[in-house]
Write a structure and sequence with these properties.
about 90% helix, mainly alpha, about 90 residues, 3 helices
């Protein structure tokens, strides 16, 4: 049962990677990378359960936190880059 769940998570990870490479916008790609990170957390938790290693849950929690903080940081970076670009265009128009 959990082996099937692990296989399904792997398929979802492959689909998320495909979306990350083919995404038409930057935000589609960022969302796909976030989904990939979330599925990685699930896969590590399932593998830890299958192997009887509950300490994998500590790794999962750290990885989930890193995934969340990284995505927020990347979004903030591109938000400020877009604001800076629009400010530069406003200055050039004057």
């Amino acid at each position: 049962m959990f082996t099937v769940a692990a296989a399904a998570v792997l398929v979802a990870m492959i689909l998320a990677l495909a979306r990350a490479f083919a995404g038409p916008t930057l935000y589609d790609r960022i969302l796909a990378v976030n989904v990939f990170g979330t599925k990685t957390v699930l896969l590590i938790a399932i593998v830890g359960f299958l192997m009887g290693r509950p300490e994998f849950l500590d790794i999962v929690m750290v990885y989930a936190l890193m995934n969340f903080i990284t995505v927020i940081g990347i979004l903030r970076f591109f938000e400020y880059a877009a604001e800076s670009e629009s400010a530069d265009e406003t200055i050039k128009e004057r």
